[in-house]
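Lab notebook, page 48
Experiment: co-folding of the full assembly
Goal: obtain a model of how the components sit together before planning crosslinking
Operator: M.T.
Materials (sequences as entered):
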Amino acid sequence: MPSSHEEWIRQAIGLAVENVRNARGGPFGAVVVKNNEMIATGVNIVTTTHDPTAHAEIMAIRTAGQKLQSFQLDGCELYTSCEPCPMCLGAIYWARPKAYYFAYTRDSAAQAGFDDAYIDDQLHLKPEERAIPGHCMPVGKSSAPFVEWAQSIGKIQY
Amino acid sequence: MPSSHEEWIRQAIGLAVENVRNARGGPFGAVVVKNNEMIATGVNIVTTTHDPTAHAEIMAIRTAGQKLQSFQLDGCELYTSCEPCPMCLGAIYWARPKAYYFAYTRDSAAQAGFDDAYIDDQLHLKPEERAIPGHCMPVGKSSAPFVEWAQSIGKIQY
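Observation: model returned without errors.
Model output:
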């Protein structure tokens, strides 16, 4: 069993290489670790599962949640072959591991033809100015879902 | 069948309200539409499925991908009750619909106790300065996964 950050990172890289060789998806792999024990792994399976969200980190986080039966990865660390894209970084924040480690940067991903850096740039623009525009459509004064949430008894906050 | 942006947005809001009443998860709902036809819906099921990535938009995008048997939501529009968080916005960019529409803003989500605005602020920091720190760990000069990808014949790009 790996015992250092570098060994776990090498495992994530190994998964990424293997994933391309197996033609399952893009060149990305990730591992979730807790107390130096592997909790879950993930690889990019976007194209083979018709799921644009099936990045390595997302898959590893989802599997770890099932393994731990929790939507919070308390005390976990995420090792990923490449710097997380904005989607995966958001997922890391919602899953709340202790830290994450990556081998290659977004620039490397961009050079290999992936949109990570482009998406990051887009997120800095106002919604309506983005290449995929976001339009706010207020529907009256009501915030019905949030009112319902505030009044809900026994809700599980996250 | 709804025929205007506002009617589709109201459907997304209705799903969000219903989701809280059913105690399935947070107060969020989303609908994917193509040619004024509903392709998929999604609600937030983070807590009940132990999946921190199971936001309404992610669920709607994943289901739409299955329905269309494609990892690209060409020509689709996404209607969501609340402005997408950074994770969901990243997912929108990977799925590449035409546009998205939302009723409530991130500030509303923040007021209701959700981390969207906080995560957005965190993403503007350098990885190592974030509350969940990201550490780059280069492992030698090799970019093995990207080299493998470049050399892969018959790979499906996305």
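Interpretation: The first helix of chain A runs from residue 5 to 21.
Next step: discuss with group before ordering constructs.
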